[in-house]
């Protein structure tokens, strides 16, 4: 039976993430529309664009939440904290086993991510791409990174996409084996990286091999960690680790951005 309470809960926790990204989303939408709009046409008003932006985000995450709610438990993927939340279960008991793995994966994974970004990729990127990427991230702010990146993207990518790919793989293999899950984690991670391209390209990044390598490999690295945590511990573990990535990264991002401006 479809768990409507869990579905609504997951959509609900994503709403703040959709709202805090409105300024950045509005800017991207305006640029996209202006680039395609005929000269004799006017761009829609900002209230209309805001409604369209929020509606688009919520429709996407509602689809992902519905897919995950329908399929995750069939392939042994779980959201124990949210399940306890909607069923008046023991929240601490559901949360406690996820905290240490999330801290370890989040902080340790972020350190490797940061080292790869600043030592390998950033020095090899062209100046325009570096400036565009970092200006875009500075425009997001910490709350967008935490609420959109840490919560919204995890419901979309792990709860929705990953659950779907594991379920499809299990249909082919007969069960959700470790190989099936890892393949699903990689596929969803690559799609997660590809999903970042439009906003960065709209911000002015150049389509270079280094840029594409950065976007795919580092987003995939994060996805391997978040996917494993979701698989082994639960959805909240992936969310917490994703948030920690941004918390650990932010001081470095601020430091290097200020140095380059």
Q: Mind explaining what this structure looks like?
A:
There is one protein chain. By secondary structure, the protein is mainly alpha-helical. The chain has one domain. It contains ten helices and no strands. The protein has helices at 4-20, 22-36, 46-71, 80-87, 91-121, 127-173, 178-194, 197-203, 209-232, 235-260. α2 (22-36) crosses α3 (46-71), α6 (127-173) packs across α9 and α6 (127-173) runs antiparallel to α10. The longest helix is centred in the middle third of the chain and has 47 residues, at 127-173. The radius of gyration is 19 Å and the shape is globular. The protein starts with a helix and ends with a helix. The mean pLDDT is 92.
Write a concise synopsis of the structure shown.
With 261 residues, this protein is mainly alpha-helical.
What are its keywords?
261 residues; mainly alpha
**What share of residues is helical?**
over 70%
Instruction: Tell me the distance between the termini.
Output: 55 Å
Shape: globular
Sequence stretches where pLDDT stays below 50 over 5 or more residues: none
* Content of β-strand: under 5%
Largest sheet: none
List the helices and strands and how they pair.
Elements: H1 4-20, H2 22-36, H3 46-71, H4 80-87, H5 91-121, H6 127-173, H7 178-194, H8 197-203, H9 209-232, H10 235-260
Helix pairs in contact: 1-3, 1-4, 1-6, 2-3, 3-6, 4-5, 5-9, 5-10, 6-7, 6-9, 6-10, 7-9, 9-10
């Amino acid at each position: 039976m479809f768990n409507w309470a869990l579905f609504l809960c997951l959509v609900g926790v994503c709403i703040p993430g959709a709202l805090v990204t409105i300024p950045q989303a509005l800017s991207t939408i305006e640029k996209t529309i202006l680039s395609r709009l005929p000269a004799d046409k006017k761009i829609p008003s900002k209230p209309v664009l805001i409604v369209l932006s929020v509606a688009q985000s919520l429709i996407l995450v509602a689809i992902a939440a519905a897919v995950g709610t329908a399929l995750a438990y069939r392939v042994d993927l779980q959201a124990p904290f949210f399940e306890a939340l909607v069923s008046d279960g023991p929240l601490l008991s559901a949360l406690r086993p996820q905290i240490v793995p999330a801290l370890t994966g989040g902080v340790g994974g972020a350190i490797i991510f940061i080292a790869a970004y600043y030592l390998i990729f950033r020095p090899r990127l062209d100046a325009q791409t570096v400036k565009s990427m970092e200006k875009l991230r500075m425009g997001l702010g910490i709350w967008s990174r935490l609420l959109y990146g840490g919560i919204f993207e995890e419901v979309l990518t792990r709860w929705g996409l990953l659950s779907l790919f594991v379920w499809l793989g299990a249909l082919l293999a007969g069960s959700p084996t470790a190989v099936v899950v890892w393949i699903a984690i990689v596929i969803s991670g690559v799609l997660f990286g590809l999903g970042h391209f439009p906003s960065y390209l709209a911000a002015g990044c150049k389509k270079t091999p280094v840029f594409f390598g950065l976007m795919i490999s580092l987003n995939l690295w994060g996805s391997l960690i978040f996917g494993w945590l979701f698989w082994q511990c639960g959805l909240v573990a992936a969310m917490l680790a994703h948030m920690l990535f941004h918390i650990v990264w932010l001081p470095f991002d601020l430091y290097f951005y200020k140095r380059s401006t």
